Amino acid sequence: MSFSTEDVINALRHVDDPDIKKDLVTLNMISGVTVDGNKVSFIVTLTTPACPLKEKIKKDCIDAIHQYLNKEVEVNVVMDANVTSLRNTGVNVLPSVKNIICVASGKGGVGKSTVAVNLAVSLAKQGASVGLIDADIYGPSIPLMLGIRGKRPELRLIKEKHFILPVEVEGIKVLSIGLLVDERQAVVWRGPMVTSALRQFVTDCIWGKLDYLVVDMPPGTGDVHITVAQTLNLTGAVIVTTPQEAALADARKALSMFRGDNINVPIIGIIENMAYFTPEELPNNKYYIFGKDGGKKLAEEYEVPFLGQIPLVQGIREGGDSGKPASLYGRENPVVAAAFDELATNVAQQVAIKNANFGPKAADTVLS
Ligand SMILES: Nc1ncnc2c1ncn2[C@@H]1O[C@H](COP(=O)(O)OP(=O)(O)O)[C@@H](O)[C@H]1O
Ligand SMILES: [Mg+2]
After folding, report:
1. Please, which residues bridge with residue 212 across strands?
2. Ligand 1 pocket: which residues have CB below 6 Å?
3. What is the pLDDT of residues 251-300, one digit of tens each?
4. Environment class of 67 (CB within 10 Å of its CB; exposed 0-12, middle 13-18, buried 19+)
């Protein structure tokens, strides 16, 4: 039995990434191939640390080696991840941030901030480097939801200019107007002050290298949305809605805004929050108090991915009010843990698919 590293690579050309539908070699996902007698080793670099298909891809690689080389071969597959980006091309704000994801809705109170916080900490828990911007200048709720109210970000003087260091909590980097000024003060700001404050979050803040920067948006479809969309070079938007008609109608406005010609932000998908009520002690009982599958049907109507359902659970509200996000601290409730894990995985997956499909040279956009 004798074969070369080239033979190994050719065997792996038969393995496709099931999401991107191209083979792993074409996608530049295979590296570090070594052959030693009948032992073969290589690295598979996936496009998200939380890849739901990790085990399947690993098994497909081993099967391909056995099928196309020899079934006696001992295969050692090292699974690695490197989040892809389309933001590293051309002029850019925040070039060291691979993906910027805004969380928006038409309506207030549907759970944007809850989703943004739990999405950010879930992505970080799965191994990504993550930042979170609270763009809801008039109603910042991120400091409360992460238990960092009253904490002041450090300033750093670089070349006679002050830069803000985001606050680090639960493995993510966070910036909110609520951390910089008295929470009651920003309420009286006029539009231009709001947009310039937001610009500062981006230009005067040291974010460092990030896989994902999540932006928690204010409600509605106003100036802040246009500023964020036009200045940040967004990867895409996650739309939060609850199942009832009033929220869906506003979600449609948000979808139309992001799809409009002057904004043109891709929709990563729709998440249905408060999809059903479930009592903590009876997780199998579901009560569809706001209607059933409203978000899911909206995703079908607009032909965008459906990212999942988050139940209405007392623990999620308590997690928000106590600064202990339910996706990290509410894991004794399996429904809650599963919902947020699925959300983070689906968002990362959709981002990877978008980065692979829309890039001019998609396979080469893997940043190191
Ligand atoms: N799935 C949920 N279950 C229970 N409470 C929730 C859920 N989602 C949001 N909440 C609560 O509803 C309120 C509004 O949510 P929030 O995330 O602040 O909405 P938005 O940012 O869209 O205004 C908060 O008190 C939050 O804790
Ligand atoms: Mg909010």
Report:
1. 99, 130
2. 105, 108-114, 141, 219, 273-274, 310, 312-313, 316-317, 320
3. 999 999 999 988 889 999 999 999 999 988 888 899 999 999 999 999 99
4. exposed
pLDDT in tens, 338-354: 999 999 999 999 999 99
Selection from 219, 233, 227, 167 nearest residue 197 by Cα:
227
Classify each residue of 91-106 as buried b or exposed e, where b means 16 or more C-beta atoms within 10 Å of its C-beta: eeebeebbbbbbbbbb
Candidates 350, 62, 107; CA nearest to 248 is 107
- Domains contained in the chain, CATH given: 5-81 (3.30.300.130), 97-360 (3.40.50.300)
Sign for the pseudo-dihedral over CA of 48, 49, 50, 56: positive
**CA pair distance 358, 273, nearest whole angstrom:** 29
Pocket test for ligand 1, best of 102, 107, 110, 114 (most atoms within 8 A of CB): 114
Q: Evaluate if pTM is beyond 0.85.
A: yes
Pairwise CA distance, residues 25 & 138, whole Å: 48
Give kind and range of the element (H or E) at residue 41: strand 39-46
